[in-house]
Amino acid sequence: MVMNSLFVILISIVCFIIAYVTYGAWLAKQWGVDPNRKTPAHTRNDGVDYVPAKAPILLGHHFASIAGAGPITGPIAAAIFGWVPVLLWIIVGSIFFGGVQDYSSLFASVRHDGRSIGEVIEVNMGKTGKKLFAAFAWLTLLLVIAAFTNIVANTFTAVPAAASASMMFIVLAVGFGYFVYQKGAPLGISSVIGVILLFICIWLGNIFPLALSKNTWVGILMVYIFIASVAPVWILLQPRDYLNSYLLYAMIIGAVLGLLFMRPAMVSPAFTTFNVGGQWLFPMLFVTVACGAISGFHSLVGSGTTSKQVDNEADLRLIGYGSMLIEGVLATIAIITAAYIGADKFAELSANGGPTNVFSDGIGNFMTSFGIPFDIGKSFVALAVSAFALTSLDTGTRLGRFIMEEFFYDPSKEKQNPLCNRYVSTLITVILGGWLAMTSWSVIWPIFGSANQLLAGLALLSVAVWLKKSGRNYSMFTIPMTFMMIVTLLALIQLTQANLAAGNYILVVFPVLLFILAIVLAVQGYKEISKKIESPLEK
Hints:
Elements: E1 3-4, H1 5-31, H2 40-43, H3 55-67, H4 70-78, H5 83-111, H6 117-125, H7 127-158, H8 160-182, H9 187-207, H10 214-230, H11 237-262, E2 265-266, E3 275-276, E4 279-280, H12 281-288, H13 296-304, H14 316-339, H15 343-351, H16 354-367, H17 374-408, H18 422-437, H19 441-469, H20 478-502, H21 506-530
Antiparallel strand pairs: 1-2, 3-4
């Protein structure tokens, strides 16, 4: 039996809507989300990092930051096991794993004055726990930078029209931020103009494609993320991500409409085998899908940049839980684009641009069903994916800077370590991430996925400890955090063995370091959560 793709996407969307209305509301009630409580964006407003943002703008920023190319690359790469196990993990993972992690991490950070998950750990598990988590998170962010730089550079090389459109889009975003935040231009009118200019960028990109080598793009991207990561959030981060959200909505609507009109069949096998080329479905499926179901990177974004911009706690469910469910929709569309084409076409597209090219080609084809020319549709999708990945890049770099500054900061000293300087910490993070980016994405991605999912397990554990100490219900964390810890530790062992056999020694060091740090943190966290709490600590 061949499955109709329209049925698949509709079932997924219905599941996510029901989850948002029911489970999301239940989580808010269990944790005590309070709309009347002032958020750090108001109590610590500094005009740089702590800046209140309206819910639609912050939703756009948060989603664009967490999504990147992750929910596209991961599901398509995992399609080797068949589309059914990938789809099931996307739905279950987004609702009960990723959504819970994202929502709770954002909430915990807001309740800790916009501090990072690392600082939440310090309050509830001590300084050693914070240092260990910071080291783990920073190593993971290096892999984030490497993976997404690689993906963006590959996309720009494969689709030069998207490259030029992306460069023009960055200039547009800066102009949008200037007029809205500095000149007080009305958001509604500015949004209409911004979106029109955005699509003009796409049109001009097809007229003036920018064809450069992959290594050249890697260099350009390194310079870009350094500048973007040290600039105030209102200059580029907020306006670009807000405009990015319209790209997202247009892309999802275009994809769903395309599926409605075209209704392509899922011709790829629903399930292949438990072992594909030495990769076992368990645990590799769960680390390969990565951001499409749960991502530790999301906890860093939520507690690193988003929590500092939350206007009201009532917005937390939409921004934290809702964004993950939207990402689940995007991941579902991604697996459909991989499942509707034959094996030969899939291999051809993957070899020239990777999973992003598979996705862009698929959505471009879907859009032809309602009159959008294929070239325009594919360029548009490639731009959208690249815009998300660029956001993840500079957000990840900004988070790397935050973490390094936190790690070396000593409140007892007047003169701080030079590594606390925003420019020094950013430069180190950019250089090391760029160096790793010279490796193929297909080599980096499994290690990134494992580190990323392990980070998610540790984030869940840290929030659970805080919730227990503050007298709140943390039972919804038990299964997700235990499962993710087991899956990712097993994956790291397998990847270490594989890279040793292949002679990729630098990629052996990363999993070994991550494994050790995770074990120590997990032991410490489970000790804390097992303690009897005599009097709940409200925070």
